[in-house]
Design brief:
The chain has 246 residues and is an alpha/beta fold. It contains 6 helices and 11 strands. The two termini are 14 Å apart. It comes from Streptomyces spongiicola.
Length: 246
């Protein structure tokens, strides 16, 4: 799953993380956006999820307001994540995630200002330096087309988390690699979480995912995947992709 304040319902209902953990292996949680915004539920959610079996990591929504604010965004993300107890190295913690995507205005995807390859490269470099862990990158094909000129080489070598609600996402041009995480729906229903939630699958076994999170020798692991069905068997909800803010 991936969650943010959006997933706490109109009345700000808490998530029941014990119930949510029963049918899921991992969660990415929104921590920050830009240089100032902090998700109001992040610290509480991260602490609660950390008391369950869920493998977990925070994500930062890239929201550049100037041509040179990548370092400030990285510092804001690192401070917020650390204050909530995330280090990127504790057992159970997956690598930090950077969300870089196009913006939807009047039903049309546009490139956010100052979101070119130079800023992305700086953001990736600073976040890796802050945590000592190479981040996972969430992005989509429209961002690559609109903001990177159709060339995603700046993301080569990073584990990619790609959306594809009707079909498996295509490889990003210039990366020579496929997805590591596939966000296959934004309409899942998960016990313990109010309303619809995004759900993803990991390309690999649960043992491999736990190894990524610094856990080895998982008891009872027989190589099952981290979500119901293998990646090739996942079926997305019908209807066109619908992006929502962060």
């Amino acid at each position: 799953m991936d969650t943010s304040a959006f997933n706490h319902g109109g009345g700000g209902e808490p998530i029941d993380w014990n119930r949510a953990a029963a049918g899921n292996a991992f969660v990415f949680m929104k921590a920050t956006q830009g240089t100032r915004y902090r998700d109001p539920w992040f610290a509480e959610d991260f602490a609660a999820a950390s008391r369950t079996s869920l493998l977990r990591a925070p994500y930062h929504f890239f929201d550049a307001r100037g041509p040179y604010d990548a370092a400030a965004q990285a510092r804001h993300f690192a401070r917020t994540a650390r204050a909530a107890g995330y280090t990127g190295r504790r057992p159970g913690e997956l690598p930090p995630v950077l969300d870089v995507e196009s913006t939807w205005v009047n039903g049309r995807a546009i490139c956010p200002p100052h979101a070119g390859a130079r800023q992305i490269a700086a953001l990736l470099r600073h976040v890796e330096a802050d945590f000592g862990v190479r981040p996972v990158v969430y992005t989509d094909h429209s961002f690559v087309a609109l903001c990177l000129g159709g060339d995603a080489r700046v993301l080569k070598g990073y584990q990619l988390w790609l959306p594809g609600y009707e079909r498996e996402p295509r490889d990003l041009p210039g990366t020579d690699q496929g997805w590591t995480f596939w966000q296959y729906t934004d309409r899942a229903r998960v016990p313990g979480i109010p309303g619809p939630v995004d759900r993803s699958v990991y390309r690999g076994s649960l043992r491999e995912l736990r190894t990524m999170a610094g856990i080895t020798g998982a008891p009872g692991d027989s190589g099952d995947s981290g979500a119901p069905g293998t990646p090739g068997a996942v079926r997305a909800a019908p209807g066109p992709p619908r992006r929502r803010p962060g």
